[in-house]
Write a structure and sequence with these properties.
By secondary structure, this protein is an alpha/beta fold. The protein is 47% helix and 19% strand. A 4-stranded parallel beta sheet has the order 4-3-5-6, sandwiched between helices. A 3-stranded mixed beta sheet has the order 1-2-9, covered by helices on one side.
Length: 359
């Protein structure tokens, strides 16, 4: 068992990195969780890991139930949260109870938001089973749902009691989901650690072969990068914004696609857009831009928003939570491993980049 601690004072919590679920019961006991537990999972993951996780949790003597949501981004709405509330109230869950998010980023966001808002906040635990969730979304306490087509418009910062990562759940991921998660892995290297970026770029084949030592190193490094940023800026008032590399364009592309594209695919397109934008502004060279796009392609990720309208993407960008008075906030690279936050209100420049991305 590897353990990394996220240090946030009274909201501190451990991240466990494991190769199976055998330590889950022990993690529950160490966290002092004694009340009722609801495991929220989706229709794909439930057939794979729900039984094993519930057996481990039940072994600690707590009363456990499950709630299965339909897999996919289209479940990420307030109606799904209401269904969770109904079961919680029907089964008389109280302030000492806990919700467990078993699945990918969508499940984690939904279950975390339900936990943050039920009775003004009950305990919750993250058990991420996708690479995207293990690398990024399960750590840091961002929870929320989409609202009327706008990505993550309703949500809360709410930290879990612990995160339990079984790296071997990646073996059952569809290839497209694994590739999607690599967008966030690559992103961490681009924003904070050029050496890690090179490791991922050179070990791409090992990742797709599910080499345990490679996956453990990647998970440990991802968690360390994410937790160090969250510790310095828990609620995204400054530094934490760098984690949004690729997200300003990416979220807009995701909305325009009707959520048919996966989150990581949209982030990859957004990263390509951010590097193209930075190159046009004289911040990076053409060679750096091309190498980054090549790495994304090697991971099986798209770098173009094919068949989309630039104007529609731009309009969606203006709905982004970070947009202020028509000015858009972008995380842009200065070099591999270092980025800055930049506000842009040059519509012509942005449209030129968007036209390249859809071309």
């Amino acid at each position: 068992m590897e353990r990394i601690n996220v240090e946030l004072g009274e909201r501190s919590y451990p991240i466990y990195i494991m190769t199976d679920f055998s330590g889950l019961g022990s993690a529950f006991s160490k966290a002092g969780l004694r009340g009722k537990v609801m495991v929220v999972t989706d229709s794909n993951v439930s057939n794979l890991y729900l039984k094993a996780c519930m057996e481990e949790i039940t072994s600690t003597g707590v009363q456990t139930c499950s709630h299965v949501i339909e897999a996919g981004e289209k479940s990420k709405n307030l109606d799904t949260v209401k269904d969770i509330y109904r079961q919680l109230t029907d089964q008389r869950f109280d302030r000492n109870s806990a919700i467990v998010a078993l699945g990918g980023g969508v499940t984690g966001d939904i279950a975390g938001f339900a936990a943050a808002t039920y009775m003004r906040g009950i305990h919750y635990v993250q058990i991420p089973t996708s690479l995207l969730a293990q690398a990024d979304s399960s750590i840091g306490g961002k929870t929320g749902v989409d609202f009327e087509g706008f990505k993550n418009m309703v949500g809360a910062f709410y930290q879990p009691r612990f995160v339990y990562i079984n790296i071997n759940t990646l073996r059952t991921l569809p290839l497209r989901e694994l590739r999607s998660g690599l967008a966030e892995v690559i992103k961490h290297g681009l924003i904070k650690d050029a050496g890690f970026y090179d490791f991922v770029r050179l070990k791409m084949q090992k990742i797709f072969e599910f080499d345990e030592s490679t996956l453990q190193y990647i998970t440990r490094t991802n968690c360390s990068i994410k937790k160090s940023i969250v510790e310095q800026d828990e609620k995204e008032s400054g530094l934490r914004a760098i984690l949004n590399l690729g997200h300003t364009i990416g979220h807009a592309v995701e909305s325009v696609s009707g959520f048919e594209l996966l989150h990581g695919e949209c982030v990859a397109i957004g990263i390509a857009g951010a590097f193209r934008l930075a190159r046009r502004m004289g911040m990076i060279s053409k060679a750096v831009e091309e190498e980054t796009e090549s790495t994304l392609r090697d991971a099986g990720l798209p770098v173009k928003a094919a068949n989309m309208e630039p104007q529609q993407i731009y309009a969606e960008m203006l709905h982004d939570k970070k947009a202020k008075e028509g000015k858009l906030s972008f995380i842009l690279p200065k070099r591999i491993g270092e980025v800055i936050n930049h506000t842009i209100d040059d519509r012509r420049l942005l449209m030129e980049v968007l036209e390249e991305l859809v071309g």
